[in-house]
Amino acid sequence: MSTRRRNRSFRATDNPVVRAIKDLILERGLQSGDLLPSEAELTEILDVSRASVREAIKVLSTLDIVEVRQGLGTFVSNMSLQPMVQSLIFRGALTPNGGLMAFGDIVELRAKIDAGYAGEVVKKLAGNYSVPLHRIVAEMEESARTGRPFLQADREFHLTIAKVANNLLLVQLIDAFWDIEDVVYPKLPPRTSKELMQTATQHRLILEAAESGDTAQYRHLLRDHYRPLLESLPHPNYFVSEATQD
């Protein structure tokens, strides 16, 4: 893409009609799933051309701020992090090693985020027995016994842990990281049954440390959990011993 086209793309997000529609969403208190005024109504409300409204809607749709449903209208989106996900996936595709180096950056960031929220998670889980998390771990162990990967259960475990911290952005961010991992995972070496069982066991130990209220052990187990994956990825600036320190 030429510099001129990149600049035009940046200017699109700063378009006054784009800003006006975002302001309208805020002023009216519209939430995810709410219907926006029609294209004709927006043209009248904002006193701009229909072409300007149409272009602004395209920009907002690309940013996942609105969702256009054919024959139904334009709705406020759930505003996921999908634009960021797609950008990171493409960024990874442009890097050496088929994106594995960029994926190493993401895994390292995930490890640090998990460590950063360790105290909050342990505080919430201490003294409790989380039925959903134990169910997920049991599913992992069953899959490992038969030599089957359990990427979805792994994702569900970390998302459930993130929800414990009661931070919506954290949940969306972890979910976005897993979207990227879904793309990269097939490029990683196949896991042996022994490795799968070790990973499942690590999840059980992490959960038990949280439920016992042992934050130090929880962080230590997180480091052990991420270390094998990070060591298998090309990451020239990474030092395992520092990956998940506070």
UniProtKB/TrEMBL annotation:
CDD domains: WHTH_GntR. InterPro entries: GntR_C, TF_FadR/GntR_C, Tscrpt_reg_HTH_GntR, WH-like_DNA-bd_sf, WH_DNA-bd_sf. SUPFAM superfamilies: GntR ligand-binding domain-like, Winged helix' DNA-binding domain. It comes from the Bacteria. GO terms for molecular function: DNA binding; DNA-binding transcription factor activity. Residues 11-79 form the HTH gntR-type domain. Keywords: DNA-binding, Transcription, Transcription regulation. SMART domains: FCD (SM00895), HTH_GNTR (SM00345). Pfam families: FCD (PF07729), GntR (PF00392). PANTHER family: TRANSCRIPTIONAL REGULATOR, GNTR FAMILY (PTHR43537), UXU OPERON TRANSCRIPTIONAL REGULATOR (PTHR43537:SF5). This is FadR family transcriptional regulator. It comes from Mobiluncus mulieris.
